[in-house]
Each structure stands twice: as C-alpha cells, then as structure tokens.
Amino acid sequence: MTAIRLDAATDILGIVDVQPTFMPGGELPVAGGEAVVPVINRLLDGPFAHAFATQDWHPPGHSSFASSHPGRAPFESVEMPYGPQTLWPDHAIQGSATAALHPALAPARIELVIRKGFRPEVDSYSAFFENDRRTTTGLHGWLRERGMRRLFLAGLATDYCVAFSAEDAARLGYQVFVIEEACRGIGLPAEGGDTTIDAARRRLEGMGVRFVSMSAFT
User: 159 an active-site residue?
Assistant: First the structure.
C-alpha cells in the first residue's frame, strides 16, 4: 500500500462515537468495539496533529428507541417523518457513564466534540447531518474555517455512524479515508446475503472513499 503523507494544515482525524455504550457490556455493543481505543490512541499520539470526536447523546425516550414504539423490537424498521428508521435498544443516554467518551481515549488532540442525536424527534448517524438530512451539526463550517480538506475516520460503527459520516463528507467535497483497524461494525443482514458492513463499503468506495490500513501511516 502506498504510504500516506499527512499535512497537519489540512488533514484531521475524526473519531466517531467511541463510547462504552457501543462496546461489550454496553447497551448497543459492537463486537470488538473496545479494540479501536488503543489503535485510535496510536493515531492521536503519532501521525495526526488534529482531531475531532462525535458523541451519541440521546435523551430518555428518544424516538429511535424500540422502547418508544409499543409492540416493536430492536433492529426493526419503522417509518418516521424523515424516512425509514432502524429501532435501537435504549443507548447513549445523556449524562450516563456509558454515553461518555471512552475514559481511555487520549484527549490531548481532540479539539472539538460534536454531540448528535439529542433532538428527541430525529436520530443522527452522521457527524455532519441528522437523519432528516437537513439539520446540520456545524462540523462542516468548523472544518472549513480551519482549512481542512482530508478526513480520516475511525470509530463505531463502520456500517452506520462511520459510513454516514464518510458519505456526507465525500458529498461535501472532502477527500475521505476510513482507517480499517480503527473501526468495527455491527453487520446486520442486508440484501443479497451481504451484511450492512459489505453494503456500506461498496457504497462508500463508489463515492471515492478509500479504506486504508494503519500501515499507510508508518
């Protein structure tokens, strides 16, 4: 793999939802989710001069929770005013210990934390837009003000919040990379016998998003 030469003036690491709620023992665990923490810390301690993080931050009774829809179960889909919505177990509850950024995550180079999903009526996967595709988080303006052009994404989950963030970043004109060892996915069944991880990867690669290894930075 060709080595990637980073430019501190225009490159930034995006750390997506690295919270205990998405790790084994949490409310919505991603298999192997805890393994991304030391990998991300290596990136923070080494090649990247700048980073931002996102934090899922739901109020109790959020509309994306299966518990808010009597008779519905987690991972079913319902139609919301903004389109289809996967229902989730209650997770990332505001102020809870499992909603905090993982305590082992090295904070020194994390310059901004974007909280998303705090509006009760709409879920939020992307670091840039809530699921209505209209409500912005403000991240795009922050990155543009700082002259950032390339985004390197890490975190949870590959097929949901990382993928939606990568897709929006590409549409907004950034060059986008997903660091494979620094991500883990949920992997729900998808059409054609694939998983949601497979489908997300195909969709993103079709948009020009590159999946890269840690070895690209050594």
Answer: no
